[in-house]
Amino acid sequence: MEIKEEGIVTKASSHKENEKFNRHQLIVFKQGNEEYGLAIDQIKEVVLTPKITKMPQTPHYVKGVANIRGNIIAIIDLEEKFGITDKNTEINTEGKYTLVVASEEFKVGILVKEVPNTLAVSQSDIDETVNIIQDEIQESNYIKGIVKVNNRLIILIDIYQIMSKQELNQVIRK
Questions:
Q1: Which of 3, 5, 110, 154 sits at a 20 to 30 Å CA gap from 47?
Q2: Residue 71: which of 35, 45, 97 has the closest Cα?
C-alpha cells in the first residue's frame, strides 16, 4: 500500500496486514490431556465413529477396521500410538468421532473423544523448533511445531508422517 505525504511516496506495510495472508487453518482435538492440531487440508471428513471390527496381527494402536461411506478403513488410536494411554484398555466408540484422513497412498481414521474445533493461526503463532525434543530413533518427524495462542499450547502434527512406511504397509494392504 502506498501513502502519499506532501509529495513523498512511502510504503506502508503493517505486520498485521502481512499476517492475515499467512494464516493456517487447523483442526484441533484432544488426545489424553493435550491438544493436537492438524492442517485442515489433511482431513477429508469428521464422522461419528461406526462399529469397529478388530483385526488380528495389527499394531496395538490399530483398533480395527470400520465401514465409512462404503470404504473399509483402519481406525487408529493416537493416544496408544503416542503412549499416553493404557494399550490394554477396551475402546468404547459410543459418542466418539473419527477424523478421516486420506492421501493418494492411504486412508485411515483417527479416533477422537470430542468434536474437533477449527482454529485459524498465523505463522508467528507457530514455534517450529520443537523437533529437537523428538526421539532420535523415530523414523519420521511428525511434530511440526507448537502453536501458542490464547494461553494454549497445541501440538502441531503432520498426520502423514505419524506412521512409518513399514507401519503403513502393515496396516493398509492395498
A1: 154
A2: 45
